[in-house]
Amino acid sequence: MKHGWNRLNAEQQAAAVTRYSNGETSTALAEEYGVAKSTILRILREARVVVRRQPMTPEQVSEAAQLHEAGLSLSQVAKWLEVNQETMRTVLKAGVVLREPTKAKTAHAADRPSDK
User: Fold this and answer.
1) Each residue of 44-66: b (16+ CB within 10 Å) or e?
2) How far is CA 55 from CA 12, 21, 60, in A?
3) What residues have CB less than 8 Å from 20, skipping those under 6 apart?
4) Lower CB count within 10 Å: N or C terminus of the chain?
5) How far, in Å, CA of 10 to CA of 13, rounded?
6) CA distance 76 to 74
7) Is the pLDDT of residue 3 over 50?
8) Could you tell me if 73 and 98 are in contact, meaning their C-beta atoms sit under 8 angstroms apart?
9) Angle (deg, nearest 10), helices 37-46 and 10-21
10) What is the pLDDT of residues 58-76, one digit of tens each?
11) Beta carbons of 105 and 99 less than 8 angstroms apart
12) Which phi and psi angles does 65 have, rounded to 5°?
C-alpha cells in the first residue's frame, strides 16, 4: 500500500521508536501513522535502533518473482515492494534465476507489468 507524503513530528517519531522497541512491528506502525514502512525504518535507523529482520510475505515473494521475470531490476522490485534489496535478493535466489545487474531506469507504475 502506498501512502501520501505524511511526515511524523518529533513526538510521533519518539513514540514510534518506543513502540517498536516494545515489540510492535514496523508494518503496524506505518499503517497506523499513515506512512510508508520505509519511513518508519528510516526513523528507527536514525534513532540507532537495531531493526529486526523484515521478512517478505508469500504474496510479496510471488509478486517480486513475477516483476523480476517480467524485466524489472532487483532494485526496482525492492523499491516497488518497499523491502530491502538484500532481503529480496536472498528470497528470490531460492527459486528465481537472477539476471546480471543492469543500469535500469527508475521503476514507475507505468513500468510495472499488468496483471493479466
Assistant:
1) beeeeeeeeeeebeeebbebbbe
2) 25, 18, 10
3) 26, 29, 40, 44, 49
4) C
5) 5
6) 5
7) no
8) no
9) 90
10) 788 888 888 988 998 888 8
11) no
12) -60, -45
Q: What is the 3-state secondary structure (H, E, C) of the chain?
A: CCCCCCCCCHHHHHHHHHHHHCCCCHHHHHHHHCCCHHHHHHHHHHCCCCCCCCCCCHHHHHHHHHHHHCCCCHHHHHHHHCCCHHHHHHHHHCCCCCCCCCCCCCCCHHHCCCCC
In 3D, which of 36, 37, 46 has the Cα closest to residue 14? 46
Distance between CA atoms of 32 and 80, rounded to whole angstroms?
A: 21
C-alpha grid cell, residue 29: 506502525
